[in-house]
Amino acid sequence: MILRRVTKHVKDQNWFAVALDFFIVVIGVFIGLQVSNWNDARAIRMSESDFLGRLHSDIVELQERRAFYDTGRPLDMELHVIITEFLMRERDDLSEADKLNVRDFPGIEKVSGLSAAFICNTIDWTAALTVPPAVLPTATELVSSGRVNDIASANIRAALQSFLQQTDRANDLIVAIEKSSTHLSSRFPDLFEIRNKNWEYDFDTGSPPDDYWCDYEAMRQDRPFLNAFALNVSKYSSYTTRGIMPVSEKLRALHHAVDLELEITHTFEQEATP
Predict the structure, then answer these.
(1) Can you point out the beta strands (E) in 92-239?
(2) Given CA atoms 115, 117, 120, 124 in this order, what sign does their dihedral have?
(3) Using the 8-state DSSP alphabet, how is residue 191 labeled?
(4) For the packed helices 245-262 and 154-180, what is the interaxial angle rounded to 10 degrees?
(5) Which of 30, 114, 236, 240 lies 20 to 30 Å (CA to CA) from residue 10?
(6) pLDDT digit of tens for each residue in the chain (274 aa)?
């Protein structure tokens, strides 16, 4: 239709009409492109809102799953110091380790001897360097689909990239440390008695705390064991401070960035602030 009009106006040499038709076509194309761009931008904003909502849920769930590592691994490091001092005859007993267990495992005192089993278990598990959960499904989807840039917030993109990079570094570090750690009960079987490594205790009913038993006096006199234990403790420290805690710190930073963007306030965090 418009082409026939333009052709007629050219034949009639009605240049004003030709210019007007050209202007109408240009304006129409421009408006069409703007509407298309607006629709695309709106779709991206809706997609971003959906991604951020799901990412926030993933972060909260992951932090809950990592809480055991964030609190338990530093506690193990405290126990390692006390046990090391005891084995090196710088302490007369393990009473401080008992107090630490009672403080951080409410109910442990209800079962006679359970704390002692925990302490012996802690010695053996200096080589138990498990990799904590660190996967955010929504982040994985964003990266694999190449849609990270759909997130408008530069702070969130930077925090997400930093978290993912730290996770990769930490996983590589943990695997390397674990390979070089010594499983003490396997290398020094005469120093341990283990009846069931997959134990669980019901603090209400109690159960026999006889799963782990250590011959501490023999350990104190066994130089190869003491050296292996010391190396394990050092590696466990690196595992905790370089492998676990930095990832959790990056996860908290990402959580904060997403909270700011979504204008979310966590009441429990405010209540915990002094």
Answers:
(1) 192-194, 212-214
(2) negative
(3) G
(4) 160
(5) 30
(6) 555 655 655 555 555 555 655 666 667 666 666 655 555 545 445 457 888 999 999 999 999 999 989 998 999 999 999 999 999 999 999 999 988 887 777 667 666 667 888 899 899 999 989 899 999 999 998 888 888 887 888 999 999 999 999 999 999 999 999 999 999 999 999 999 987 645 555 545 444 445 788 999 999 999 999 999 999 999 999 999 999 999 999 999 999 999 998 888 876 544 433 3
